Amino acid sequence: MKTTTIKKSEIQHDWWIADAQGQTLGRFASRIAQLLRGKHKPHFTPHMDMGDCVVVINAEKIRISGSKENSKAYFSHSGYPGGAKTTSYKQLLNTYPERVIENAVKGMLPHNRLGRQILSHLKVYSGSEHPHHAQQPKVVEFK
Questions:
Q1: What are 16-69's pLDDT values in tens digits?
Q2: Of the residues 17, 19, 88, 100, which has the fewest C-beta atoms closer than 10 A?
């Protein structure tokens, strides 16, 4: 029995549009990460970028479960002494709602060159408008 591998020229990238309105952040981000990675395709290859492009709209209307709205925080460090910075979930959602979804999906992708390349296929917008109508994205439904 022969094992067949897919070539880079045979990979087809589709476009999907996902509405974040009323969705729970973690469950929504994991489904988006699976689409970006290409795990829904029959010829999934872990070391290749074979996923699809995903456009997320209504990022400011994402939900979060429990009391995490008041306690969840995002940590970053500049690399310099005293360069630690903590931002609360509420503050980040009010100022940059796109980053909430981007950070959640980024944590569910591989932490290497491939993961950074896959993350570039994610487009997040805070409103219901997006500039990717020419790609004719298909609507993906999450229950």
A1: 999 999 999 999 999 999 999 999 999 999 999 999 999 999 999 999 999 999
A2: 88
Q: Is residue 17 part of a domain?
A: yes
Query: Alpha-carbon distance 90 to 47, whole Å?
Result: 36
Structure confidence by residue, pLDDT tens digits, 77-90: 999 999 999 999 99
Expressed as residue numbers, the domain containing 101 is 13-66+97-139
Which pairing describes strands 84-88 and 73-77: parallel, antiparallel, or unpaired? Answer: antiparallel
Structural domain count, the chain:
1
Residue 128 lies in a domain: yes
Query: In this model, does residue 3 exceed pLDDT 90?
Result: no
Residue 3 lies in a domain: no
Query: Token pair for residue 28?
Result: 């929504």
CATH code where residue 30 lies: 3.90.1180.10
